[in-house]
């Protein structure tokens, strides 16, 4: 009938959280998680994705209707009935009517109670129906909202920077190419080929929104981006994705200590919000993935994060007596094993490492007076390693151009960026937070593929 809402139903989460439903008639929809039959009654545990909890449907067999199709795992159905108190103090539904919406044959792959995460990675389209992924993606959603709330309530403008770009932000050549034509024999040189292509020049998927973010910050003062970034690096590790979500605030009239303060304050806010908003999910992770997780996060947000310079960190690593796979020398890039040693063994908490050698950092970072280091900062956390990378930016036109020339960069591609240092340049800085790495850290999940709905990694896309 026109205008009739045929699928009107109540979220299972609401029924569990509001005792006034007891004695009332409700309609619920969901997928069958378990079903068992006894002499007089049948029981179905139903989940609709709104909560980790399943609601029990109690079916009186004497009523005579045929519900046999509803007894298969994975079947989707709608049930009507009365909410009653269950013996275990929870609530359940005495069913008066049941309609199968979609049948589910025995080859449904989610049969076992606990599949391995590796197996579930082969089923990205179905794994969301497990408790683990229900919890992961609710946490992800709540964290995203908390990040927006933090910046919005602190006066930041949310900007959307382009995903297709003509300049490589990190200058490391790890961009996916965007093209509509294949390179063929018609084109004698790369220049000829790019000139023929869609944009008339070489284009790629952006590795970071920072360069455009700086331009926006030079107009709006405080901005943030929250969107995808792409890295074509051949890193088949538990913490690298080819497509990840990136939170990048950029602040005018700010120096490195301001950037550090912002990162700490923002993280503490989003973790507090998460603990308050998702107690059931966090308890689930604490029980099943990392014992003591909640206590660890409570501890984290009630203390100041550590701070150490890169030079001091190298000294600590050299004196550690540890047998690292990658040798430690001043000037080396910190590997995950080094990052974890610093945060897990030395500081036992989140720690900012600052002032890295200029050679291992990006061209845009502010050059320190020592001539050797730049005003960079990485945040290292136990269990994951680096989750944030940021810096104060080089605001001096001549110094920036000199570095870009030293690195052999094509200045023509960066004129918008370098113009900022000509027209009212100001001290400014920002950072990039890897959203998936934050989710790993707060859930205890060990693999970035398990906090992303459809992970794209080297050699893996569907
Ligand atoms: O340290 P990165 O490369 O810094 C930038 O992109 C700067 N432009 C950020 C800025 O200052 N606005 O990346 C920042 C963070 C890393 O700390 C990490 O958490 C995450 O982005 N990240 C990745 N996450 C998943 N997969 C990858 N391949 C990642 N590469 C970086």
If you had to describe this structure to a student in words, what would you say it looks like?
The mean pLDDT is 94. This protein folds into 2 domains: 12-108, OB fold (Dihydrolipoamide Acetyltransferase, E2P) (Beta Barrel); 127-157 and 236-450, Bira Bifunctional Protein, Domain 2 (BirA Bifunctional Protein, domain 2, 2-Layer Sandwich). It is α+β, with helices and mostly antiparallel strands and 462 residues long. Helix 3 crosses helix 7 (279-288), helix 3 (131-153) crosses helix 13 (435-443) and helix 6 (256-277) packs antiparallel against helix 8 (293-302). It is elongated, with a radius of gyration of 27 Å. The protein has 13 helices and 15 strands. Helix content is 30%, strand content 23%. Strands 6-9-10-15-14-13-12-11 form an 8-stranded mixed beta sheet. Strands 1-2-3-5-4 form a 5-stranded mixed beta barrel. Bound molecules: 4-amino-1,4-dioxobutan-2-aminium adenosine-5'-monophosphate. 4-amino-1,4-dioxobutan-2-aminium adenosine-5'-monophosphate (4AD) is lined by residues 169-170, 208, 210, 231, 240-241, 244, 246, 248, 386-391, 430-432, 434, 436-437.
């Amino acid at each position: 009938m026109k205008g009739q809402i045929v699928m009107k139903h109540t979220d299972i989460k609401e029924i569990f959280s509001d005792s006034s439903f007891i004695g009332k008639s409700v309609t619920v929809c969901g997928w069958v998680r378990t079903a068992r039959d006894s002499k007089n009654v049948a029981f179905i545990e139903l989940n609709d994705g709104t909560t980790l909890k399943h609601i029990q449907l109690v079916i009186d067999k004497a009523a005579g209707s045929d519900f046999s199709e509803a007894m298969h795992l994975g079947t989707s159905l709608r049930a009507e009935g009365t909410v009653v108190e269950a013996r275990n103090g929870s609530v359940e539904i005495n069913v008066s009517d049941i309609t199968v919406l979609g049948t589910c044959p025995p080859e449904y792959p989610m049969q076992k109670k606990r599949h391995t995460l590796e197996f579930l990675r082969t089923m990205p389209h179905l794994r969301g129906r497990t408790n683990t992924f229900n919890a992961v993606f609710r946490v992800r959603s709540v964290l995203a909202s908390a990040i927006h709330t933090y910046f919005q309530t602190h006066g930041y403008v949310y900007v959307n920077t382009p995903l297709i770009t003509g300049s490589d932000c990190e200058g490391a050549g790890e961009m996916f190419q965007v093209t509509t034509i294949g390179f063929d024999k018609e084109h004698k040189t790369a220049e000829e080929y790019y000139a023929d292509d869609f944009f008339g020049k070489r284009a790629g998927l952006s590795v970071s929104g920072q360069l455009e973010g700086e331009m926006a910050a030079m107009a709006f003062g405080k901005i943030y981006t929250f969107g995808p970034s792409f890295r074509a690096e051949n890193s088949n590790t538990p913490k690298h994705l080819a497509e990840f979500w990136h939170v990048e605030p950029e602040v005018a009239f700010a120096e490195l200590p301001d950037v550090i303060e912002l990162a700490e304050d923002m993280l503490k806010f989003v973790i507090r919000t998460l603990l308050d908003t998702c107690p059931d999910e966090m308890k689930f992770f604490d029980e099943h993935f990392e014992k003591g997780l909640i206590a660890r996060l409570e501890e984290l947000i009630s203390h100041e994060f550590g701070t150490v310079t890169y030079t001091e960190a190298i000294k600590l690593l050299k004196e550690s007596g540890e047998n690292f796979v990658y040798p430690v020398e001043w000037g080396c890039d910190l590997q995950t094993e080094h990052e974890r040693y610093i945060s897990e063994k030395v500081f036992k908490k989140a720690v900012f490492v600052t002032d890295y050698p200029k050679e291992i950092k990006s061209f845009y970072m502010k050059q320190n007076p020592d001539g050797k280091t730049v005003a960079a900062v990485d945040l290292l956390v136990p269990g994951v390693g680096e989750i944030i990378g940021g810096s104060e930016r080089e605001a001096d036109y001549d110094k920036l151009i000199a570095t870009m020339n030293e690195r052999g960069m094509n200045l023509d591609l960066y004129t918008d960026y370098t113009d900022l240092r000509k027209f009212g340049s100001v001290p400014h800085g920002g950072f990039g937070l890897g959203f998936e790495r934050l989710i790993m850290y707060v859930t205890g999940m060990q693999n970035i593929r398990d906090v992303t709905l459809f992970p794209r990694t080297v050699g893996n896309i569907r």
